[in-house]
């Protein structure tokens, strides 16, 4: 569930015990999931839609806090030199469970009972909260300033670190591009490639495998080539992948291209998240990390809108097929420009 990250929430993460915050957020999510399960057992009525929307909003808000706190707490658990390995394992586990285990399991559970997936979700969240509660951490510095001052401190650090700010802007542009192409991806598969639902499912599976591969290989690649070259390779991977999709007429080529795009995306994530965790002081990490993620997530709704509008505007002039290809081709060109910018402005080593 993707929500725009609120930088104001980050102050809370730097004020409290992050371990307890994660556990409590998971317990809150468990309660909400249980409430959704009870709602699923009721007969449909008009108010249920609004109630479900409210519960989904609360669930997403708790997830925002939990995810940011989890990314912030990692440097307190592993040594700085092991951050790439730890982040790679976390990303790969998330992709494996979210893309391969979760969807088919949900199908089986829904077939057994519509409320069953939500009950199981609640149970696993309680288990996760218990496991997080058992983690032992060394004491960390808590924020003592008022809420407004603490938030301004995070913003000031972000503005003062030019390289960090550039990375955030590049991430925002990259996510804008990714969402613009994702918006028309199913149309491309259906109208341009004439793929069946089963074939498109295989294409999406190739993308998920790419994400897992990129996460697992990222620590090894960074040790072999260094984080700087790997950063350039990740951006280049996006550009080549998008351009390939825009030019191809074969489903297998699209699958291979998405494999490369997702592998490159995970390589970028492991590199930049680990770099931020080392660079930002622990007492500021929650605030600065949240502001950084706000850049990345805030551009995604705009990208989705831009992708759809681009196809709608171009369709009458250049035809439907070329209009659907256009977001991928433009994405490739934009990534080429990002790569040139990164070579001159993003020096992490």
What is the element string, with H for helices and E for strands? HHHHHHHHHHHHH
Ends distance: 34 Å
The rough form would be described as: globular
How many β strands by DSSP? 0
Oligomer: single chain
Alpha plus pi helix count? 13
> How large, in whole angstroms, is the Cα Rg?
21 Å
Strand content: under 5%
Mean pLDDT across the residues is 88
Parts with pLDDT < 50 across at least 5 consecutive residues:
1-5
Structural class: mainly alpha
Approximately how much helix is present in the residues?
over 70%
Report the biggest beta sheet as strand number plus sense, adding barrel if it closes. none
Question: Could you walk me through the main structural features you see in this protein, from its secondary elements to its overall organization?
Answer:
With 349 residues, the chain is mainly α. It is built from 13 helices and no strands. Helix 1 (9-15) packs antiparallel against helix 11, helix 2 (18-40) packs antiparallel against helix 5 (116-133) and helix 3 (46-73) packs across helix 11 (282-298). The radius of gyration is 21 Å and the shape is globular. The relative contact order is 0.15. Mean pLDDT is 88; it is low at 1-5.
